[in-house]
Write the structure tokens for this entry.
Amino acid sequence: MADVTSELMFELLRRIHADGADIKLGQRELRAEMNAIRGALVSVHQDIHNIHTTLARQETRLDRIENRLELREFQEAQIRFEPQP
């Protein structure tokens, strides 16, 4: 076997340290990307909530309009049967 010198050990430890630093940098980048994705997901969730709110409001308005139309149709039908002077 080759003799392990302190210079060889030092070089090996330096490479391991550099690899560890690269891994930490990669983790930081991934963490930043995950935070960006999380923010985008929250934004999409809020948009969907706003759409649901608007849809519910439109549905309520449509129900009121339909009720008014039904009342008007009923009133028009009643007028036909009432005696006219």
